């Protein structure tokens, strides 16, 4: 056996590539023709494995780092052709300065990709009736590439929080911030001379494919439990997002725009075409804008949330103002409906969806002697959550007694407050966090 990998083009190697894929995907695995020929081949880079000059396998790489259509002919497997193809794809990705790669592995082949460093993200899903698993690989030079494209001297820089977990650090004359690229998850916003405003657990995990306990997880396209077998709070909080733009704005602020589009693995969980963006603007205030665009031809419904964990001095000496006389669903009591009398105070597990509320909330923290204002638009519900002593123990990524120093006031559309986004239309959810003047 003399194995060689050749870089191929769809035009020149059309017959060889279609023969290989027809044999493996359509004939052997029963993938429908319409799914196999998805219109993305002409723009892809293709790879062919040759054994003594005979084509025995193939793979392709798309411009956004999506690896796919990996196939080795039956009878030619187990001899290293798959590994050689994957290595050639990784090499080509490095040369093209791709910072991260992803693929939807057939579940039985997940170990093969894991040996090259790919990490599973989310649960298995069916594609063409075959169980698949999304896997992602952050390349070693990922932050270098992001810095070349998006760094702003003295203001914005990417670095690794842990292996494969890139974060962006933003420094402005008024405040600093840290955001993980995975999940586009805010981890810190700290106005100068203040304690951090966001809370992140000391036991938080910084791992590819896992959300961080704290900061601002983005919950989308559903908030809460979702359908059986699907991840709580949607699927975007554990996936890598693209960085699309960075820049400087008004009043010395710095912004970063993250994006994500649908692909096979999102459509298996939620069968709609979308383009989602999170724009974070860091300055004297912190602005988060979550923009949902419907890229398909039918309307869809979402629920969503900017699941903001705030740092407080002592939850027992903290109140939330702005929800007085508002109705809420009490999750601790099986979603019973009640009405808020006075400020929200805390003396036990609290998990409530306040409905039909668009007003600002103010977190009045007597211990740290500060007031945090959470203003919003595009949101008609607010979740207030603290797990308290018992529930905290059920979270492996929360340390003992941390419930005392955190409080979630979440800008959401949840419960019955689902948002319908028409085909081609957009909807924006905004949370604006600031410290009250004079405190
Ligand atoms: O553990 P997760 O999935 O991040 O969710 C944390 C909490 O998120 C809150 O928004 C929910 O109201 C709680 O019920 C839930 O426990």
UniProtKB/TrEMBL annotation:
GO terms for cellular component: cytoplasm. Its EC number is 5.1.3.15. It is an enzyme of class 5 (isomerase). It holds the Pfam family Aldose_epim. GO terms for molecular function: acyltransferase activity, transferring groups other than amino-acyl groups; carbohydrate binding; glucose-6-phosphate 1-epimerase activity. One of its GO terms (biological process) is carbohydrate metabolic process. It catalyses: alpha-D-glucose 6-phosphate = beta-D-glucose 6-phosphate. InterPro entries: Acyl_CoA_acyltransferase, Aldose_1/G6P_1-epimerase, G6P_1-epimerase, Gal_mutarotase_sf_dom, GH-type_carb-bd, GNAT_dom. Residues 5-140 form the N-acetyltransferase domain. It comes from the Bacteria. Keywords: Isomerase. PANTHER family: APOSPORY-ASSOCIATED PROTEIN C-RELATED, GLUCOSE-6-PHOSPHATE 1-EPIMERASE. Belongs to the glucose-6-phosphate 1-epimerase family. This is glucose-6-phosphate 1-epimerase. It comes from Sulfuriferula plumbiphila.
